[in-house]
Amino acid sequence: MTSFRTQLLFALISLILLVLIGLGVLIGELFKSYYPNALQSRFEKEVSIIVSQVEQQSSLQEISTSQFDEISDVLDMRITILDEQDTTVYDSENNGLIERHEEMIETIQEDQLNQSDVISRYQVEEDIIYYAQGITIGDTTGVVVIGTTFDELKDVYRQIWIILSITLGLALLIIILIGSKITNRYTKPIDSATKVAIELAKGNYRARTYEDRVDESGKLSNAINILARNLQEMINSQTIQQDRLQTLIENMGSGLIMIDRQGYIVLVNRPFLDFFHMKIDDVLNERYVDIFSEEKVQQLAEEVFMTEQRVRRQLHLSASYDQRHLEVYGAPIIGKGSAWRGIILVFHDISELKMLEQMRKDFVANVSHEVKTPITSIKGFTETLLDGAMADEKALHSFLSIILKESDRLQALIQDLLELSKVEQQGFKLNISTMDLRVLLQEVKTMMEQKASQKGMTISLLGSDQSFIEGDQDRLKQVFINLVSNAMTYSQPNGEIRVLLQDEEDRVLIRVEDDGIGMDEQEIPRIFERFYRVDKARSRNSGGTGLGLAIVKHIIEVHAGEITVESTPDEGTAFDISLPKNIKNRM
Fold first, then answer.
1. What residues form the membrane-spanning segments (predicted)?
2. What is the reported pTM?
């Protein structure tokens, strides 16, 4: 494709070339007409001189041949003088190139020229001319005929055209050079502006053109640069807004899906794909009725389409979606001029809220159940005593012992509930002090050895000789007493409980393990729930309230620590606790 600069330069050179050719032709024609006229005027003057010299002769028969021979040689003309009888009285015969001389003499004789006539001109050939005029010498008349050639006129024409060609060629070359510079000067800004415009069309909004002039092309470059800057700022702003919107959509924590007016899905976010276990390529540009297998979701979307009203509903998805509880919010998308664009559905995962709600319900039920049992026992035995059993000392002692035991159990339950409530409070504070964890574990061992010996069990304290940490000594002692007590409760007689202390650079690891009944893997995540028991029958008979491990977990978390469990059925259970040495830097 020819560039604008080449087209402009070609048009300019073509125009100038046509002008120069026309000018050359005009000048050539002027010179061509000028020289013949000048030669003719000169020839006529020379003829007049020759005629005057002839008329000065005494007679035609006494003409001085030598004089006219000299004149003929000097003027390079053939002079012929005829008398009144058309007889040649003199002929210089010095111009042998005139082959048609005799024929021209006869033609002139036929014209019967006299002195009163002006000089007659006869064109024989292009470069041969004859002049004739009548003369009178005394009483005698005659005719002077002069023939001449002008071969030099061709040389003059050739020189003229050579000069014109050289001149016009040099002028054309100079004009091409000057025109090239001029077109380059005026088309360069246009080319630069064109390239920048092409780059802008491609999306490269950083492209700029030069602004080195103050004329119209400079104004064009300045306007294009302003346009490029405005486009760049607009695109940057749009990109920032789009990135913000995309980040918000992808990280909003709720599933989002947008459906156009034809029912095709045009936008989804990552939480939605995670909710329904889908891939984005399988969802985009598909009809929503083909994507949602749950009729509840389809019905909600159809309701928004039909009513064009906001809809909010809680849905419980089937097992294929991990038994999720979702709160779905649907709303129509209305554009400018009330144009219907489609709908948007937002899926809030409320499974955890439902689980917490169920946990609260279970907690209330468990507390009611745990409290009901001792109260029922106390009430039953009290009524029995009031009905007359007090008279029987043996029965009285047995019933009162049972009442005391159930009262202690009820008291322990209430105390653990109060303790758990206190630990879970937002403003719960620890009495931080520096302690040797080895000494604390030794105290726990000493406290629990008597109870362990009753079951024939031993408690071993292994690991580091000392390990200083910051923490609440009473709360940590409560943790390890609870763990050791649980190990004793769920272990077989004559077993062993091992407490391992390991000191690291910034943390302390404690492991409490036993060789008891253990538990299944699916039960491990639930053992820290309130009132959860692995072996409900045995644990209830052991006197536990089911709140100990819940309290343990909260105390460890308040100390910025972690607790994990490893267990194998019929082989034993191990609780691993990790506590930071400097708790103040982690709270």
1. 160-179
2. 0.43
